[in-house]
Amino acid sequence: MPKSPSSPKSAAAHPSRKWAWLASGLLPYPLLLCPLLLALGCTPSKTDTSVSAPPCDGSGLTAGDHARTQVVDGLERTWSIHLPPGADSTSALPVVLNLHPFVLGGNEVFHELWRTESGLEALADMEGFIVVHPEGTGDPAAWNAGQACCGDASADEVDDVGFLLHLIESVSQETCVDERRVYATGMSNGGYLSHRLACENPDRVAAIAPVVGSLSEELVCADGRAVPVLQISGSEDNLTSRQASVDHWVDANECTGQAQVTENGAATCTTATDCRDGVSVTHCVISEGGHCWFSDHQAQVAPGCDPVDFVSEQEAWDFFSQWALP
User: Fold this and answer.
1) How do residues 2-24 score in pLDDT, each as one tens digit?
2) Where are the domains of the chain?
3) For the segment 277-290, what is each residue's pLDDT rounded down to a tens digit?
4) Are 1 and 259 in contact (CB under 8 A)?
5) What are phi and psi of 44, to 5 degrees?
6) Fold designation for 61-320
7) What's the order of all strands across the beta sheet hosting 130-134?
């Protein structure tokens, strides 16, 4: 049985973050293996992350930051890739897709702000994984996560899931990636898209950890492996929608055991047990929390976003590190 998310580690090594501009309301609140394995009677999802991907030849990207712009499906798309110190393109590393919230993308200032404030690069440098920061489309920048969210990207039916799949392949061609360990997280609109990515491609991402984002109700999920999910929510932020998304994953993953409830700092975490393929679905709800990327320091000046004993990026990584594709 996979463990529940662990207590957050100190964020003292993370840069100071001040999101005073959020008080203006800029970030809105709405917002071919598996069949064969099954035939052989094997479990199509593993919790053993110790199996290494094949070694790479060292000719790819190495430690540092790398910006990319490319036309994908007729649209100019941009993203950045952060490789931790010591990355030399000879050892396969996990990848975390870090999906920005509505508005916090589309230009260099917002891109750099989200890269810093989400804290994932600092954590990647300590834990040894790759972070990819893609950009949405439109003005303000948004992702098409379905009818529920958001902006022109949703209205124009931009294929953002297709873009993320392209991105995974592109990064895998540029550096040494453990393709069994590709994960997605994001806040708000980015959380919505991480839900959609896993819903429509359960055999491509090893686990997701949406923060204050939901699965758009009209989406029909693809058949495939069960998906490990960590949902992070604020008790004062559209909790009904967040819980409905968790209930979807509990049903889709055929979890039949008694739920386990644990206290994790400011969060109460409920974990569905006895799920298909041995996965888990956990919902951590921060008491009196709002629409936030939760942290133990002043991350955002917005209702329900005071410092709490819960660090979103650390909890996401602690969860991700338990899971790998078969």
Assistant:
1) 444 433 333 333 333 333 333 33
2) 61-320
3) 999 999 999 999 99
4) no
5) -80, 10
6) Rossmann fold (3.40.50)
7) 64-72, 75-83, 130-134, 93-99, 177-187, 207-211, 229-234, 281-286, 267-272, 260-264
